[in-house]
């Protein structure tokens, strides 16, 4: 069950701040953790308050924290990745990122986790101008940013998603070709779009049968970057098979290297600056009131919402 409930306002310890939450972002992993399935992070003990990322205003600081943060608009991770689906949330001061002028809090919150993750995945894949890039879940919060980053690097993008509405989003964000992977023969369409060679880079956030099919269509000498398992299982690739085709597999463990406070904060600040300057646009699909968090989770699980899903307090 996921239900609204009154709980005491959280206390603030040393090195931490209290944020009055305006927007809480939801990522698909949180829906998996709520169900009791984890693609990697440890399962929380119930009962718990979900919510790993928020945007809002700092209202109180703990010991050792600059009081100048009070009253500032920020986005931040929550302590232990929990507690953000609430009116107030606690965060470590080292994770605070100011929201630049000209950028709305919902847009900043939508970029908090997906933005810094997309930037890290993009940089590790080392995309070159003219390469073909296949982005799975291309209309999702993370995939939509990968489409834009790849296009900005001069790549040609194939956006893959599971409905015509989502394909429209991917196309509007710059995908040169789009394919519906809910239809048979979708990999043939990918090959055709890439001139028969297949994509040089694949961003695999779905896994399962779709991820496996995407690996098989990857061009020889390409890169296959795994970052998710929304299907329920991460793509499994035999090392010998990848080596035989010269495909470099960047595994799911790359995500574990993204947790460093300084690096993550720097990436968030960079994507917020790009968004404020109009160079990057989060695809916000739908917002829900905080009390309707269960409905928001259900919509994400039903794959019915293109773009990012947010909770508004």
Summarize the structure.
The protein has 313 residues and is of the alpha/beta class. It is 31% helix and 22% strand.
Main sheet?
7 strands, mixed
Number of strands: 13
- What is the CA-CA span between the terminal residues? 20 Å
Structural class: alpha/beta
Helix percent band:
25-40%
How much of the sequence lies in strands comes to 15-25%
- Average pLDDT works out at 94
Helices and strands, in N-to-C order?
EHEEEEHEHEHEHEHEHEHEHE
Radius of gyration: 19 Å
Q: What is the count of DSSP helices, taking H or I runs of 4+ residues? A: 9
Low-confidence stretches: none
- The rough form would be described as globular
What does this structure look like?
The model has no long low-confidence stretch (mean pLDDT 94). The protein is of the alpha/beta class and 313 residues long. Helix content is 31%, strand content 22%. The two termini are 20 Å apart. Strand 12, helix 9 and strand 13 form a beta-alpha-beta unit. It is globular. Strands 1, 2, 3, 4, 5, 12 and 13 form a seven-stranded mixed beta sheet that branches. It has nine helices and 13 strands.
Keyphrases for this structure?
single chain, 7-stranded mixed beta sheet, 9 helices, alpha/beta, 31% helix, 6-stranded parallel beta sheet, 313 residues
Helix-strand blueprint:
Elements: E1 16-26, H1 28-35, E2 53-61, E3 73-77, E4 88-92, E5 97-98, H2 105-125, E6 132-135, H3 143-152, E7 156-161, H4 164-172, E8 177-180, H5 186-193, E9 201-204, H6 208-217, E10 223-226, H7 239-245, E11 248-250, H8 261-276, E12 284-289, H9 293-301, E13 308-312
Parallel strand pairs: 6-7, 6-9, 7-8, 9-10, 10-11, 12-13
Antiparallel strand pairs: 1-2, 1-4, 1-13, 2-3, 3-5
């Amino acid at each position: 069950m996921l239900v609204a409930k009154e709980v005491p306002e959280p206390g603030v310890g040393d090195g931490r701040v209290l944020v009055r939450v305006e927007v809480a972002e939801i990522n698909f992993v949180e829906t998996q953790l709520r169900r009791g399935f984890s693609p990697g992070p440890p399962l929380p003990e119930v009962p718990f308050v979900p919510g790993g990322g928020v945007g809002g205003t700092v209202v109180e600081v703990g010991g050792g924290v600059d009081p100048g943060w009070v009253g500032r608009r920020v986005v931040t991770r929550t302590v232990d990745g929990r507690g953000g689906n609430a009116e107030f949330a606690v965060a470590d001061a080292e994770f605070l990122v100011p929201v630049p002028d000209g950028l709305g809090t919902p847009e900043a919150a939508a970029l908090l986790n997906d933005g810094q993750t997309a930037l890290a995945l993009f940089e590790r894949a080392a995309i070159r101008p003219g390469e073909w890039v296949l982005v799975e879940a291309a209309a999702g919060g993370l995939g939509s940013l990968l489409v834009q980053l790849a296009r900005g690097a001069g790549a040609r993008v194939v956006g893959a998603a599971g409905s015509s509405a989502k394909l429209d989003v991917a196309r509007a964000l710059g995908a040169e070709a789009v394919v519906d992977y809910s239809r048979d023969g979708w990999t043939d369409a990918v090959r055709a779009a890439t001139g028969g060679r297949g994509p040089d880079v694949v961003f695999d956030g779905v896994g399962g049968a779709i991820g496996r099919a995407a690996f098989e269509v990857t061009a020889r000498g390409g890169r296959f970057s795994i970052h998710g398992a929304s299907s329920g299982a991460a793509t499994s690739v035999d090392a010998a098979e990848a080596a035989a085709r010269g495909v470099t597999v960047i595994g799911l463990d790359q995500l574990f290297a993204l947790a460093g406070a300084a690096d993550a904060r720097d990436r968030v600040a960079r994507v917020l600056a790009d968004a404020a300057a109009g160079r990057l646009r989060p695809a916000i699909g739908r917002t829900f009131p905080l009390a309707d968090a269960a409905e928001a989770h259900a919509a994400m699980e039903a794959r019915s919402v293109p773009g990012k899903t947010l909770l508004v307090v």
